[in-house]
Amino acid sequence: MSENIAQIVDGVVNGSLKDEDVIVWLHSIFEKGLDQKSTITLTKSMRDSGEVLDWPMEWKHLVVDKHSTGGVGDKVSIILAPALAACGLKVPMISGRGLGHTGGTLDKLESITGFQVDLSIAELKAQVENIGIAMVGQTDSLVPADRRMYALRDITGTISSIPLITSSIVSKKAAEGLAALVLDVKHGRAAFMSKIEDARSLAKSMADASNGMGIATSVVLSTMDQPLGCAVGNALEIVESVETLCGRGPHDLEELVCVQGGILLSASGVACDMEEGALMIHNSLNDGSAFERFLKMVDAQGGNSDDFASDYSMLSSLGLLDEELISTEIYVENKGWIEDIDAMTIALACLELGSGRKSLTDNVDHAVGMIIQAQIGDEVEVGDSLIVIYHRGDLPEGMSESISSAFSLVGEPVEIRSRISEIIR
Ligand code: URA
User: Fold this and answer.
1) CATH number at residue 282
2) 330 forms bridges with which residues in the sheet?
3) Phi, psi of 114, deg, nearest 5
4) Binding site membership of 165 for ligand 1 (Cβ less than 6 Å)
5) For 154-169, what is each residue's pLDDT tens digit?
6) CATH code (residue 336)
7) Whether residue 154 lies in the annotated active site
8) pLDDT of residue 98
């Protein structure tokens, strides 16, 4: 079976297998699944279908990354990667674009004027060596097997198979030459997997494959029922990332950054345990070192760190002072405590405004989106601001009402819960 898998992956890459044959194979994995050993073999074969990054002996144990299964307002990577670099780790982060209701790290970064995500492997390696961090898109030379397999899965409805998702995601992370990886697997109404049991199965499969390839891998299972933080929309999420990098972020976002960072600092031996690592990350957000690393990355990748010297220049560089951008505020109609904010309703409205892609070829409008003004647990009075919507032209009919309905209020105080439901190490 193992030899078979390696031969098939070879055939996928060198073109000796026709689309029909690859589709039959993908369908059979989709229908029957794969055991753990074969999933690892598939993942390794896919990793080895292209270039695998190698790093100098002296610091290859410090090379780390994270992966999130995606969510609404999930800007953890943009804060975590510079914070990790500030704490001494090396982060060659290869990310994706947004599709459907979930945002993509690359689209968010591209809101920064001049920021380039298409680096060559040589540029990526030099930047990681020099400043400890690069945040880039996929290159053609890494895991070519996944490009063909993913495209065929997309048109044959075979995306949602745990072994195929595992091998697709983990092979790309393994090709970065990582020593440690943290996976943020979301569950909830706006997550790829709504049920925690399904998220746990995917998490276990990915962690087994990644650990089986020698990468020290842990998983954080976290909820994706409400948007993460207050900002949803590419440029607005960069503003919130900068706030968090300067120690002024919302607590749910900062908690995920500190916990995932703590796990990676402990896995790579820089911190003696996860708690010490989380504190190091927290300190890097409060002493300016994480923000400094972010600014170095902005300069290295074609942006201008001077744009972040004042709020005015930052908002202007991010296109948020564009005169065509209109802001509409929605207010509280009945007093109470905020119990819930439906992430899916917010995400679909942002998609409608143009902040995301309905199909792969759509262009995104980086400036549109929303800032949630009242968080879960807040006590609000009639007339208080609930949310500000940034849009162009008239708001689509019914959108205000729909966004308003995303907020559920109750008549008594609400407990604020951690978004982290489980940590699997
Ligand atoms: N993202 C990937 O890169 N691959 C999958 O299979 C699913 C999500």
Assistant:
1) 3.40.1030.10
2) 387
3) 85, -15
4) yes
5) 889 898 899 999 999 9
6) 3.90.1170.30
7) no
8) 80
Residue whose CA lies nearest to ligand 1 atom number 3: 169
Asked whether residue 9 is assigned to any structural domain, the reply reads: no
Please tell me which residue in 95, 161, 167, 168 is annotated as part of the active site: 168
pLDDT tens readout for residues 11-41: 999 999 999 999 999 999 999 999 999 999 9
Nearest CA to ligand 1 atom 8: 165
How many whole angstroms from 165 Cα to the centroid of ligand 1?
A: 5
Residue 131 and residue 92 share a domain = yes
Determine the structural domain holding residue 347 and report its residue range: 322-410
The token pair that represents 135 in the structure block: 């945040």
Distance in Å, CA 198 to ligand 1 centroid:
16
Q: Kindly state the tokens that stand for 382.
A: 């009639």
Distance 169 CA to ligand 1 centre (A): 5
Residues 344, 267 within the same domain: no
Q: Which of 69, 143, 150, 173 to mutate to test the pocket of ligand 1 (most atoms within 8 A of CB)?
A: 150
Q: Which of 308, 337, 367 is the last residue of a domain?
A: 308
SS3 content of the chain, % helix, strand, coil (to 5): 45, 15, 40
Q: How far is CA 177 from CA 56, 74, 123, 203, in A?
A: 11, 25, 16, 20
